[in-house]
């Protein structure tokens, strides 16, 4: 009998030795998880040499006073598709609430609002996402690979990308330096 585990609003942290370099030290903000599958946005790595201003220029949006924040590697699925994780103080055409902890928007209106200084108070931009089919993530959680941890807006927005993975573990009392690359066998 399979136990239902719904991780919406949690942070999915890759364990050392996950076996896929795209997810090494990954910190994935889980935005949807139900019996049909799961979707999350990577927040633990940024795309080299790509900032918000260059992304806005691709859409012919003047950056205004928006900082040239890094763009995150959201995941290997649809890397040309953009997402903005943000605080719930702003909502747009397709904004969804993520378990009352943050919001997710995937249309250009959020980028325009950020550039105009009328967007959410805290946000991060990502390209791509991580996705799992029905039952796939539950299976991966039973093997060595992923660990889920509580997440909130502070973990997402008050930490640089390279620190989210470690701080996610530390919030629950785990020193990630002590994690092994292999599981034991009985």
UniProtKB/TrEMBL annotation:
SUPFAM superfamilies: VC0467-like. GO terms for cellular component: cytosol. PANTHER family: UNCHARACTERIZED PROTEIN YQGE, UPF0301 PROTEIN YQGE. Belongs to the UPF0301 (AlgH) family. This is UPF0301 protein AWL63_13360. It comes from Sphingomonas panacis. The lineage of its organism: Bacteria, Pseudomonadati, Pseudomonadota, Alphaproteobacteria, Sphingomonadales.
């Amino acid at each position: 009998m399979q136990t239902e585990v719904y991780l919406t609003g949690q942070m999915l942290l890759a364990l050392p030795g996950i076996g896929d370099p795209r997810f090494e030290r990954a910190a994935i903000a889980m935005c949807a998880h139900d019996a049909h599958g799961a979707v999350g946005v990577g927040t633990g790595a940024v795309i080299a040499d790509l900032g918000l201003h260059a992304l806005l220029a691709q859409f012919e949006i003047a950056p205004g006073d928006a900082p040239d924040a890094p763009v995150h590697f959201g995941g290997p699925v649809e890397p040309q598709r953009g997402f903005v994780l943000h605080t719930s103080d702003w909502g747009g055409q397709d904004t969804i609430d993520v378990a009352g902890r943050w919001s997710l928007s995937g249309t250009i209106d959020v980028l325009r609002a950020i550039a105009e200084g009328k967007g959410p108070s805290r946000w991060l931009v990502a390209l791509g996402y991580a996705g799992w089919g029905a039952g796939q993530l539950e299976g991966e959680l039973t093997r060595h690979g992923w660990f889920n941890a509580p997440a909130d807006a502070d973990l997402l927005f008050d930490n640089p990308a390279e620190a989210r993975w470690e701080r996610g573990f530390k919030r629950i009392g785990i020193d990630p330096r002590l994690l092994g690359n292999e599981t034991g066998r009985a």
